[in-house]
Amino acid sequence: MTSPARQLAFETIRATFEQDAHTERAFREAADGRGIDGRERAQAQRLAYGAVQRRGTLDAGLERLVERPLRRLDPPVLAALRLGLYELIFADATPDHAAVGQAVDLVKAAGAAHAAGLVNAVLRRAARERETLVASLLGDDSTPEAAAVAHSAPPWLARMWWEELGPDEARALLAACNEPPEKAFRVNLLRTDVDTVLERLRDAGVAAHPAASGAPYAVMDRKKRTGTEGWLELPETIVVEGPTGDVVPELVAAGLLTPQSRGSAAAVAALDPRPGEHVLDLCAGPGIKTGQIAERMGDRGEVISVENDPERAAEVAGQARRLGLRSVTVVEANAGEAGMAPGFDRVLVDPPCSDLGTLASRPDARWRKSPATIERLVEEQARLLRRGLEALRPGGSLVYSTCTISRRENEHQVDGGLQLQLRPDRDHTTGFFICRLRRDDASDE
Predict the structure, then answer these.
(1) Which of 2, 225, 336, 367 lies at 20 to 30 Å from 322 by C-alpha?
(2) Distance in angstroms (rounded) separating the CA atoms of residues 122 and 80
(3) Are the CB atoms for 282 and 351 separated by under 8 Å?
(4) DSSP strand pairing (392-402 vs 418-421)
(5) Which residues contact 172 (CB under 8 A, 6 or more apart)?
(6) CB-based contact 357:431 (threshold 8 Å)
(7) How far apart are CA 104 and CA 94, in angstroms?
(8) What is the pLDDT of residue 445?
(9) Are strands 392-402 and 344-349 parallel, antiparallel or unpaired?
């Protein structure tokens, strides 16, 4: 009998790679539909996200074990093998017989009983040869190709970071993309204060602290980057260690907390919006930074949030309502084409990007990108940056930010200003690039 957790993980893996579904959405919809919650849901998420994230490593191992091209395997067979091998290599708590037996049961239940013997043989061999297999897959990251296998990354991405950052930093960054992401939240200072929230979390047994305290989360603030230290002041941000319990979702629903990485929050800290100002947020969906802008302005002034996608525009409006904000106006329009009248005091340009700084929190993101993706995005980013600069009043400030680590999208897009690249390996947060410019002379204030 297949466990509900493994069945859910199996369905999520299949939806991701066979239907091009986004892993998080596919998992949530399947879990809600089956009514799976608690420990089973948590286990299923670990298995599903882990197998998707580690597809590169798993497929390299399966190619050696199956001894035939993986494309010749039926989709449910490949999904079961990926899940089974993930458990054998990465899930220490799973007994070998359970990982093998459950994978065989999944294949049978999916209508591929003819391949049950193959799945059984391949995974039993993996269990017998595990030490040698793990060493061959994970023990060498000395070249981009080897690092792509060891850290489960597309080879093109390993090569790009090798060239842009050098071997040592590329290896560290690739490894960090498989670590659990930080759990950071923004406190709505219009409704409460950090100490009150922290006390409520402590009372509920949730460990949390301000973003500027505690290791390793103080790394961002300890690093001295000339001229940029003030960008990293995040007095409204807290970091949760371990489980969030029921209290964190309750505080989010009440508009007192908003999930937001410190990297994301730093972009608005760099923008430094002031009460009474006229601020433009281009490409605003889903509205996380829009809310932070309005909160930092004390909800005094005006925040114009432009978003082209109707669903994401609705999310922006929904965020403003949840947070109790009155200064936010949502404009449903194409930010690259909309002619915004000049005169904004500050503009945030947070354009679509390759999301390479978020790979730790989005298990399937690394498999959705390519060099062609970056080249396509670069043109749109440049157009949006021009629109943002045109909307500024003389002397106004613009922040260009992306949640990626790609020089084509970052350093090559902007000229001048203060620039900062946050990285998950070094700063333990989302990989954000942030640049602050002025319209009149393209330099920082």
Answers:
(1) 336
(2) 11
(3) yes
(4) unpaired
(5) 425, 426
(6) yes
(7) 15
(8) 44
(9) parallel
Q: How far apart, in whole angstroms, are the C-alpha atoms of residue 109 and residue 325?
A: 50
Give residue 213's pLDDT: 53
Q: How confident is the model at residue 342 (pLDDT cuts 50, 70, 90)?
A: confident
| Ramachandran angles phi, psi of 140, nearest 5° | -135, 120
Residues in the chain, total: 445
Mean pLDDT of 291-316: 96
Using an 8 Å Cβ cutoff, are 85 and 66 in contact? Answer: no
Give the mean pLDDT of the chain.
92
Burial of 321 (0-12, 13-18, 19+ CB in 10 A): exposed
- Three-state DSSP at 185 gives strand
Closest CA to 123 of 152, 74, 89: 89
> Between β-strands 392-402 and 302-307, what pairing exists: parallel, antiparallel or unpaired?
unpaired
Give the separation between CA 17 and CA 27, rounded to whole angstroms: 13
Pairing of strands 278-282, 237-241: unpaired
Find out whether 343 and 409 touch, Cβ atoms under 8 Å.
Answer: no
User: How far is Cα 388 from Cα 381, in angstroms, rounded to an integer?
Assistant: 10
pLDDT digits (tens, 9 = 90+) for 351-405: 999 999 999 999 999 999 999 999 999 999 999 999 999 999 999 999 999 999 9
The residues annotated as belonging to the active site are 403
Determine the Cα–Cα distance for residues 264 and 215; give it in Å rounded to an integer.
19
Q: Which residues pair with 307 in a beta bridge?
A: 332
Assigned token pair, 60: 């390299």
Per-residue confidence (pLDDT) for residue 206, from 0 to 100: 96
The pTM (predicted TM-score) of the whole model is: 0.91
Which residue type, as a one-letter code, is found at position 407?
A: R
- Whole-number Å distance between alpha carbons of 378 and 375: 5
Residue 187 has phi, psi (to 5 degrees) of -85, 130
Burial class (CB in 10 A: 0-12, 13-18, 19+), 213: exposed
Q: How far apart are CA 341 and CA 14, in angstroms?
A: 47
Write the burial class of residue 82 (CB in 10 Å: 0-12 exposed, 13-18 middle, 19+ buried).
Answer: buried
